[in-house]
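One thing: could you explain this record?
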Amino acid sequence: MTALAPRRPWRGRWIVLAGIVLVGLNLRIAVAAVSPILDAVRVDVALTDTLVGLLATIPVLSFAVFGSLAPLLARRFGLEPTLMAAMVLSAVGEIVRSVTDTPAGFLGWTMIALAGMGMGNVLLPPLVKRYFPDRIGPVTAVYSMAMAFSTTLPALLSVPIARQVGWRLTLASWAVIGLLAVVPWAVVIIRSAVVRSELAAVLRRAPTQTSALAGRHRAQGRVWRSPLAWGLAVMFAMNSLNSYVVFGWLPVILTGSGMSAEAAGLWLALYGILALPGSFVVPPLAARMRNPLPLVLGFAVCFVVGYVGLMLAPLDGTAVWIVFLGVGPSAFPLVLALLNLRTRTSAGAVSLSGFVQGVGYALAAGGPLLVGVLYASTGTWTAVYAFLLGTVVVLVLAGVVACRPVMLEDTWGARPH
């Protein structure tokens, strides 16, 4: 009797899974490691308020610019070598910025560190597609959780470590994760013939998670011609915009309503932790659904309830509003899963991932700044909430397009010869 699935589905892929998890654990470290010890950094590096604002903008811009470059580099040098170079780049940026004494040096090397992480953002989904086409949901959940931990760990550990060894060594120490992430991929490249042979043997009997959408497709095309790609990009953008706005402005909203700064910080920490359940649950669930639009609608409802609650009664039922707001951004792991579930090849996943994250981060970059302008010009949060609720509507409309059961290769148009 022929087996429908391999008896040892992970054989030959443990080293790849380790590499994926370590890269995921590194993708937010350079961002999250600074804010808990920012006061100490400002004293030694002389960062003004304006430069601190620029420091907060650099991550989104770096993710947009360097994420867009990742597909070009991957096609030229290969997925695995490009990812290794990105992790080394991130580690070098983290180490050098920790020893710089000038604002320009600190900001510049922060951008270098984030350049590597921006490329890693784009390269991970196609690597999941290449090595785990039969386990897209679970593996996406694993590395999404690793990304969530990469935001949470510095918030918990940076301050106590800095008290013992100083902020410079604290920032430099996080580079260890990026360097460790290089090791599994070096093994994969060195053993590429053996690993790929074992992988092929496993996948010959492993059903993919997109077989229901099989059909004829164009082998080559331009991703920007695809409605699916634009739907995912806008959905990603609106989700990211709301996440960055809440991270940047929630403490201001709560303290402006009369809450202490300490309590507001705890609510922000809870908001960040709530990314973990969605990262674990959403990708496998999406892999089982032909059209995951109901998930998008559920996340939109969470955003609406959270924003309306904060607008009407920020200090009454704060826990409820924060929980709803924390669940809303679970559209992020959904998009990561769809990057693979809506493509047939790793090449298609590279193109789609680069386009969605490049365009998405670029569109999201102005969100926190616009919120500041609206609040400064009106003196109230009413216009801000109206704007944010409007972005939730756009999120839903984009989700209608992004969640349709079609594949990128069927929608991106033929490339002219």
